[in-house]
Request: fold
Amino acid sequence: MDRFRLPLMALLMCLNSLALALDLTPQEQAGKRLYREGLASGDAQVSARVGAADILVPASVVPCASCHGADGQGRPEGGVRPPALNWQRLARGAGEHRVNGRQYPAYTEASLARAIQEGRDPAGNALDPAMPRFVLSMADQRNLTAYLKRLVEDRDPGVDEQHLRLGTLLPQSGPLAGAARVVGAVLAGSIEQVNQQGGIHGRQLQLTVIDPGPDRASAEQALKRLIEEERVFALVSPLAPALGTALPLMLEQRGVPMIGPLSLPAANVQNRLVFEPLPGVREQLLSLASYAAERLGVKEQPALIVYSEPEQAPLAEVLQQGLQQEGWRALRHEAFEANQPLTYAAQSVFFLGDGAGFVQLTEALQRAGQSPYLFAAANQVAGEVATVPAQWSQRLFLAYPFLPGDWTDTGRAALTDVRRRQQLGAQQTLLQVTAYCSLQLLGEGLKRAGRDVSREKLLAALEGLYGFDTGLTPPLSFGPGQRQGLSRAHVVGVELPGPRFHPL
Ligand code: HEC
Reply:
């Protein structure tokens, strides 16, 4: 997929997703299409004049939703402030209204049409030329007016007066079942915690869990069911690596936000909708690489990325690109098999895979008489580090998204409470913390989005989070185009035998 085409395609797909939260009449449906996509019900093209120069463009290029928001709340951007389109407010009472310094009496259907078609408010004030003048047939205008009257009620799926429904994918069998149980328990315990404190803006959180099954096809089916039948508002911490890059793509097509880790970083996909609390394996290894470049001075020397399972090949590719961008030159990547020697003598070896593969790698290097620096993500290999031969002492470096020193008393107490509720031990801490932080992040986004929540508002709220304190990690920050709360990991040196760990 090419990097430049994707955002536009994603925007179009997103506007196409008709997620109906209430029953609309055919007329209101047609109005919604016009509002969201700029398309008329028949074949006729709708156009609009834009800017002070009145340039004529298809309305599909400037649908109402692109400025006023799919939820009608208005999306301010670069000094342009499209107001909220709430018919109940626009048409209310006899009093004067004040918007953007204009003052005008209540809207009627006729003056609404004039605003949309001629750019004048009910007092005759010219609207800012950033608001296009739309060329509409009488039928189009009637449809649009009908929909604008329902717009505030047309909530995203999964939200009613008392509940907000979240969804996740957790396998009940297979190699990931144990991890899935841990994630499920942390999510359930955290949600119980939130609900006992009164929920969020008076709504109780609900969680729908579906098993993604054994392969990609079954996982795609499960995700579709979660979105289309269960109608969840957002996804939290799903565990379905078989989906790979299909996960962000399917979410983008359907406009569903997700808070939680992606199993595969999709190098060229813009993920507008996915917020990851912690750095992925790629970012962790890049943190190790910058340590290696700055402190060990090995950037100019041969470096190798090895992976012990074929599924890691795309990740190795992505990592290689990342390292090249950082200026590493003599770089290769290759698959590693236990009994085959490595073909390339490197000064630095970056490892992707599991603990067993990592131990085999150290043995193979030793047999070949090589002793490069070794770099790996702690969550992949830390369990086996004690069995690594002592010759790697101080040549082995691990990345950790957080360290015990990042835990505050409040954070520790909250996680302990979640564990107690679910009779969960301290196993798989990284998984626990990731799931816990995903839910904290989602909760904070929902709080900031307000009672009148929509998916768009949630995304805007998350994007605006800066220095958010989870109590278990360094503070998380997001921003436009910034979808990982922590872009860097801690680097820890390993002393053997022991092992003893030294944060660097
Ligand atoms: C390119 C951005 C943009 C698009 C697209 C757009 N608007 Fe606007 N709209 C604005 C801005 C900006 C204002 C505020 C103008 C001002 O206050 O002077 C506005 C004002 C309005 C107002 C006046 C509200 C008031 O309080 O007086 C209405 C009604 C309105 N838009 C409806 C629509 C409808 C319906 C569509 C789609 C058919 C649409 N707009 C498309 C930017 C846009």
User: Anything to note?
Assistant: Residues 62, 64, 66-68, 80-83, 85, 99-100, 102, 112, 115-116, 121, 127-128, 130-132, 134, 144 surround heme C (CB under 6 Å).
